[in-house]
Amino acid sequence: MKISIIGSGYVGLVTGACLAKLGNKVVLIDLDEEKVKLINSGVDTINEKGLSELLRSTDIEASSDYQSITDSEVIFLCVGTHSEKGYSVNLQYLTNAAEQVSQILKDKGAYCVVGVKSTVPPGTTEELIIPILQSSGKKAGEDYGVCMLPEFLREGNAIYDFMHPDRVVIGEYDARAGDMCYSLFQGFDVPILRTDLRTAEMIKLASNAFLANKVSFINEIGNICKELGIDTHEVAQGIGLDQRIGSKFLQAGIGFGGSCLPKDLKMLIDKAREIGYEPKILEETWNLNEIQALKPVALLKKYVSINNATIGVLGLAFKPETDDIRSSRAINIIETLLKGGARVKAYDPMAMENFRKLFPSVEYVSGEEVLNSDVTLIITEWEEFKSLDYTGKVIIDGRGISKAKEARIYERV
Ligand code: NAD
User: Fold this and answer.
1) What is the full per-residue pLDDT of the chain (413 aa) written as tens digits?
2) Ligand 1 in contact with 219 (CB < 6 A)?
3) Which of 28, 125, 144, 190 has its CA 20 to 30 A from that of 277?
């Protein structure tokens, strides 16, 4: 099939590369011309295992010109839906992209599908995107179809996740559009759930809200365990073996960051409030996560006074295997340390360049050198941190690197 992807960030680039691998002809559109150039020369603009090989070996091209999508059979909208600052939803990129697509629909003879893959509040595709597409003078469900296909990939494992999903969700306005999207994934041996647009939008938000809740839940259990002198990690292991609960997302620590969980949780809270419902569990999930973020700073004050200490930070990315620092827990922590007058040394295998743009005054050094600090905080659970030598050090561990227990003083958040 001829497929266009609007927005070539994490989701767009991975979706495009994987759909090309499945035998489709893919055109990626992005307003960022530098990104377009890099993609066309086979350079991956994000760190994802196997992505550059796919870009070089598949039928895929990038462009910043929407005229390149005129013969598309399916057009996926994969632009961001978050504000640059804060967590509030920003649908401006999506409405701009939909307006451009609407211009293309005006002159399009053949039926095609417009599929929203960006994460949006329930009702957005129907109430905001379809009216914009209708401004083409063409009729949804007749001249073109509309779908909403939420994306569940995990950064760092995105290609694998796209190719081996737990499920595919297709929200459809018209059955013909649903059939076309279904045909893209029918080779996958996984449940394919076909539903309506707003249910698909809600499934995405509810999935991430559930995962966020699981993290805050175990953090709360952890805070209680700490007071009682019980090892939370053994407790998590014990409850995770119950198949109704499962062991994933049960690592107590400094909570969740990243470009998705906080934003999607906030999106659902805001939507609930907008309709007059007070989402108490979701709000407490959020509040607990805020409190948990600065626990390492509170703990280190037991050992040093921030304003004349050198503090080491191991891990800057919001999670391992990515250079993505969006809403990383390290941001709040380092901000607080610098404001408090600390000298900060930091190391991350992938994310130092991104971090340097935000915090030029931090000293970016090797992992070994970070450990030559008065106190070191572990913020991201990178595999290589399991082989550092922690003997004689003071470590506050926000993620559970058991090798760090060999430290002179070891505190687990
Ligand atoms: P991103 O910011 O990495 O990428 C968005 C891209 O869209 C950018 O390259 C930007 O230049 C481009 N863009 C913006 N406006 C455009 C326009 N009008 N036309 C063409 N290109 C335009 O975002 P992302 O992380 O890929 O997320 C995209 C959406 O997918 C969001 O709604 C996000 O919540 C959702 N999502 C993200 C993930 C993830 O792991 N990152 C996972 C699931 C869902």
Assistant:
1) 999 999 999 999 999 999 999 999 999 999 999 999 999 998 888 889 899 999 989 989 999 999 999 999 999 999 999 877 778 899 999 999 999 999 999 999 999 999 999 999 999 999 999 999 999 999 999 999 999 999 999 988 999 999 999 999 999 999 999 999 999 998 999 999 999 999 999 999 999 999 999 999 999 999 999 999 999 999 999 999 999 999 999 999 999 998 899 999 999 999 999 999 999 999 999 999 999 998 999 999 999 999 989 999 999 999 998 999 988 999 999 999 999 999 999 999 999 999 999 999 999 999 999 999 999 999 999 999 999 999 999 999 999 999 999 999 999 99
2) no
3) 125
Answering whether pTM is above 0.90, one says yes
Distance 7 CA to ligand 1 centre (A): 6
Quick check: 19 and 127 in contact, CB under 8 A?
no
Going from the Cα of 184 to the center of ligand 1, the distance in angstroms, rounded, reads 21
Second CATH level (architecture) for the domain 205-292: Orthogonal Bundle (1.10)
**Residue among 10, 68, 69 to mutate when testing ligand 1 (max atoms within 8 A of CB):** 10
Nearest CA to ligand 1 atom 34: 119
CB atoms within 10 A of CB 28: 30
Rounded to an integer, what distance in angstroms lies between the CA atom of residue 8 and that of residue 27? 10
CATH number of 2-195: 3.40.50.720
Q: Is 260 a catalytic residue?
A: yes
Q: Which of 4, 6, 11, 87 to mutate to test the pocket of ligand 1 (most atoms within 8 A of CB)?
A: 11
DSSP readout, 147-204? EE----PPTTSHHHHHHS-S-EEEEESSHHHHHHHHHHHTTS-S-EEEE-HHHHHHHH
Domain boundaries, the chain: 2-195, 205-292, 295-412
